[in-house]
Amino acid sequence: MKQNISERTLKDLEFQTILKKIAEYCISDLGREVVPRLQPIPNSIQLKEELYQVNEYLASFENENRIPPHYFDAINDELHLLGIEDSFLEATAFLKIINIAKTIKELIAFLKKFKEYYPQLHRQSEPIIIHQEIISNIDAVVSKHGEVLDKASPILKNIRKDINLVRGKIGASFTSALSRYASAGYLDEIRESVIDHQRVLAVQAMYRKKVKGSILGNSKTGSIVYIAPESTLQYHRELQNLQYEEQEEVVKILKTLTNQLRPFKTTLKQYQTYLTHLDTIGARAKYAQHIKACLPKISKTQKIYLKNAYHPILWEENQSKQRDTIPQTLELNKTQQIIVISGPNAGGKSITLKTVGLLQVMLQSGILIPVHEKSEVSIFNNILSDIGDNQSIENQLSTYSYRLKNMRYFLQKCNENTLFLIDEFGTGSDPELGGALAEIFLEEFYEKGAYGIITTHYANLKVLASELENVTNANMQFDSQSLNPKFKLHIGQAGSSFTFEVAKKNGIPYRLINRAKKKVEREKIRLDKTIAKLQTERHALQKAMDDLKLEKNIAEKKSNELLKKNDTIKHKIDSFQELYDNNQKMLSYGRKFNELLHKYFQTNNKKQLNEELKKWVTIEKSKHDQLKKDKISKTTSGSNSTPNKPISKRERKIINQELRKIQKQKEEKLKAAEKEILKEVVKVREVKQEKAKKEALTKANYTFKINDKVRLIDSKSKGTIEKIEKNTATINYGIFTAKSSLDQLELVKSAK
To answer: N or C: where does the chain have the smaller number of CB atoms within 10 Å of the terminal CB?
Structure first.
């Protein structure tokens, strides 16, 4: 995929400002050099990999397995020296190299361990080979303070041992001379000093000939002469010889180490390139976290759906001034190919157009964008822009001439994979003639299948947008009462320019405005008034629809709650009825059995007892069999069942009488129970309603404070308020924090 996004477009959209802000988040000098040179990525596969890597790095901020630190010092000079034969690196240079090698080793091990969390970052690190000998070779020679170790070679170890012995002798001989000459009274009060890293005696000038040694200097006044005692000079010459030998051995060791690392020059360059790229990935992720950006879905078909999109530069500026930024939502697709935005000046048309262009360029450069996560975008081969006054002084072109040259370029490049952005389309020439030419250009872009957004005040372009099938009008909402812009985009209707209304608000005298109106065709004024009226009516209608939708949602919610409560009450009544029936059945059995026993105790007639008992058991068995049969018939849906043992007419008559009697009693008791239950339900409902009113009143008047336990309305997740700024609260949910308006919160538990 070959992309064509010109430097002019990047400049129009202020892309370099975004890169400068990202560069501030880099941790290395090389990263800060590379980020300002970032360009849109032409290869779609590489672009997606970059976006996924930034997204994975961003996700690492919210989990326990954060990506390890990867700071490093540039080793460009060291790599250059490795390419020069017989050259060698200083000991401190090896500290930079070993730091890079150890950082790479740690990163590769981490990404391998957590490759399920960071698949794209792990895939990028797979080609890198860890060479342990780089680390071990340097560790064997150079200390963590950048000094060559004694153990680097036996010769160096012996030389340094001799140096320490000689320094001991120098110290002893100097102390002896100091003591002797101090006793003789030859020394000044300060007694000694240091010149050229060598201890010297501070001798009074009058006694300088009495002290044997070399004069190395004197005080400004000349009253003190600094003399190195003769007894230490011999040892100093021996020390200088040993130090020279030490330096020669150190150079020899460093040359050997340099030669050991020379074959790894390409590897070290690869390490630095990888860390530099990872630094740019990290910087983009940190910037994304700052502007609350995310990775939208990448669509295979050409479309742009931006939900709650912000212009990042405007958002940061408003944040610094504690002002709100109005998000925009719009969509470009096959059925809505081009959007024509109209409306008053300073209403937000240009910033909306720039938002779409800047976010698209950012995304195609591997930078996450501040939109809702359900947004969806595709990749365009060409992004063309014509924004602002582009007079070309060096080419002696007027604004209109420049725009015509731009339109010619647009016509050459426009196709179904093009996104074009034109601000104040058609301006710069006679309104009627320029507007007519602009119509032709718009028709050409439309026929070529290009996607785009244009802003305009021309009525003929608004009319054309309503006539073309896949071109849509849009307007920036404007309050006709206060004459203030709302900075909110509305798709589907052209907007009025509110020319005379804005002039009136800005203090232009009425007499001048009326004179201007007389110079304009009546039809033009009528059209502008009609558009303004329709825009006001549409706004009122939209508000009414939103209110109705809200009321409908509340009503549906209440209805669902009532149905749920009704089901619960019904279930409780059924359970109560079943329990009541079982209890009544057991009481009936007990009473009947008690009655038979009482009668037997009076008559002592076993035969009568057996007959009546048999009769009662038969009736109960018949009832039981009938219930069982009813249950089987319900489960088998009309299937034939095995007939029971025939019952006599007399027995059937008695059974039916008893059944009717029991049924009547059951119905009476059920009605009584229902009345009692309904009374209790009404009481419970009244208590609950009263309690709910009190709670609602308490919550409505409640002032939220820090450490209150809250949740969002219609949400189950509970969190604790950490911070309150004006009408916005920062809520801690344990694993993450979020911000919300106070009027969207519901109190769960007040802080103590």
So the answer is: C
106-148 residue pLDDT tens = 999 999 999 999 999 999 999 999 999 999 999 999 999 999 9
CATH of the structural domain 702-749, one choice from 3.40.50.920, 1.10.8.60, 2.30.30.30, 1.10.10.10: 2.30.30.30
**pLDDT greater than 80 at residue 199:** yes
- In this structure, the dihedral spanned by the alpha carbons of residues 116, 119, 124 and 126, taken in order and rounded to 10 degrees, is 40
> 10 Å Cβ neighbour count for 734?
9
Percentage of residues in the chain with pLDDT exceeding 70? Answer: 82
The per-residue pLDDT for range 40-81, each reduced to its tens digit, is 999 999 999 999 999 999 999 988 889 999 999 999 999 999
Better-scored residue on pLDDT, 163 or 501? 163
Give the model's pLDDT for residue 674: 63
User: How much is the average pLDDT of 212-237?
Assistant: 87
Give the helix/strand (H/E) hosting 719.
strand 718-725
pTM value is 0.65
CATH topology of domain 297-498: Rossmann fold (3.40.50)
Angle between helices 312-320 and 349-363 (to 10 degrees): 120
* Residue 476 in tokens: 């920036």
> What is the C-alpha radius of gyration for the chain, rounded to an integer number of angstroms?
46
Q: Which residues contact 400 (CB under 8 A, 6 or more apart)?
A: 427, 428, 429, 434
d(CA 189, CA 751): 72
Domain 8-150+260-290: which topology?
Answer: MutS, DNA mismatch repair protein; Chain A, domain 3 (1.10.1420)
Report pLDDT digits (tens) over 420-444.
999 887 665 556 666 788 888 889 9
Q: Measured between alpha carbons, how far is residue 564 from residues 75, 414, 425, 475, 600 in Å?
A: 70, 58, 58, 45, 54
- Is the Cβ–Cβ distance between 331 and 304 less than 8 Å? yes
Interatomic CA distance for residues 559 and 121, integer angstroms: 50
Angle between helices 91-113 and 265-290 (to 10 degrees): 60
- CA distance linking residue 447 with residue 469, whole number of Å: 11
* Most confident residue range from 141-150, 342-351, 404-413: 141-150
Contact 176, 213 (CB under 8 A): no
**Measured between alpha carbons, how far is 160 from 246 in angstroms, rounded to an integer?**
7
Distance between CA atoms of residues 309 and 353, nearest Å: 11
Tokens standing for 334?
């096959």
What percent of the chain stands above pLDDT 90?
40
Query: Which of 108, 101, 94, 96 lies closest to 140, judged by CA?
Result: 94
Higher pLDDT, 662 or 548: 548
Element (H, E) at 198: strand 198-204
Helices (H) and strands (E) in the chain, counts: 21, 20
Residues belonging to the chain: 752
What backbone torsions phi and psi does residue 295 show, to the nearest 5 degrees? -100, 110
Closest of 230, 219, 225, 223 to residue 177, by C-alpha: 230
3-class secondary structure per residue, 413-476:
HCCCCEEEEECCCCCCCCHHHHHHHHHHHHHHHHHCCCEEEEECCCHHHHHHHHHCCCEEEEEE
> Residue 205 is which amino acid?
A
Do 327 and 310 meet the contact criterion of CB atoms below 8 Å apart? yes
The string of pLDDT tens digits covering residues 473-484 is 888 776 655 556
- pLDDT for the residue numbered 266: 95
